[in-house]
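Q: I have 447 residues here and want to know how they pack in 3D. Can you give me a structure?
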Amino acid sequence: MNTRTRKHSGVAWLGEIPSDWEMTRLSRVLERIEQGWSPQCLSRPAEGEEWGVIKLSAIRAGCFDHAENKALPEHEAPATPLEIRSGDLLVTRANTRERVGDVCRVKVVRPHLMISDLVFRLHCTESVCVPEYLAMVLLSSIGRTQCRADAQGSNATMVKISQRTIYSWHMPLPPLAEQRSIARFLDRSIATIDSAVAEHERNLDLLAERRRTLTSDAVTRGLDPAAPMRESGVSWIGLIPVTWNVIDLRRLVDPSRPITYGIVLPGENVADGVPIVKSGDCTQERLTPERLHRTTRAIEASYGRSRLKGGDLVISIRGTVGLVAQVPPSLEGANLTQDAARIAPTAKTDTGWLLHVLRSTPIQIEIAHRTVGATVRGLNLRELRRLVLPVPPKAEQRRIAAFLDEHAAPIDAAAEKTRRAIELLHEYRQSLITAAVTGRLRPEETH
């Protein structure tokens, strides 16, 4: 049990800190904050001795990935003072509300990479604060709480924080020796946790591959290996059973409820509003009233055309394109944003079968081919409606859906258990960081 004496931090939401620690603002521990540059870059990463500019995805939860960059064109002179070096402390100044203010301490970096306009480089006053410790404070709930409160933007897609905002944030400040000790302890602990997460993620990939193989064979060849086959007339589909047809997706949809996207500007989340399905929500575990954002009833009233019914399918059409899920009865009357589209199958189409088809590897590859855009990838409705599918008679659709439901269920259960394990590791990681930088761990536990 931690028996060190404590005092109130003076910050209501933070509570107590050890008696020999201080509370201060980041303005005291930072020499300066430097902002990057965003020239027009190529769509590929830098190679060899080329210069590049990092993307926001290079900074994630304390880790730095120098492969996430875009090459600078040959005719553009690099801003060499902005080159990233080992030891740099980087913070994203603009991103989604969940990821704005993400931070990392650079350990390894390729030469000739620069910080971008959407990234800050923080320079510590090292006689006051150890950079590694400050990185952990910003990763903790202390940093995340202040960042989420101060991030500003017109919508949830992109919010920003300013240098002035960062300077105003509070932080607990132990003596320098203890800062170093905490940073070393957390560095080792996080490495162990991240290794466990990586192992679980590899297992998820293996489970996903098993499911893809199972699904793809069933929805493109059927369940009878002896069934006579014919050419589909579509190169990427190839052979299909002779009783099947090749049909555009729009022909499988209720003409009174055509494929459509939803609300363009849903506004801020409101507790008593109408649930809305965004691009990232198009997975079965996300489609619950408790996990969705909500828009006002006044905004939603203008979008009756995209209202959902239980049994509809929703598909992400911007950002991470191609996620598909079935709307549960609990979301009857919910709506969409412009990043997702509704697919309402006709009575002649088995919804479970269509869900499996749209998730299958051949169809996902075709969706990817039809997706365009450099910064934000998108699938327009015209391309989605014209997506061609191998379609069996409805009785066979039902048999395929039942087969896949039965045989995919154990795979899905294992995948869900693995995802939950990853979530718990992330939660433990966050709580461990917060406990260490607020002095709730005994001193010896951080040595």
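Q: Anything worth noting?
A: The mean pLDDT is 92. Residues 22-173 form a domain with the Adenine-n6-DNA-methyltransferase TaqI; Chain A, domain 2 fold (CATH 3.90.220.20).
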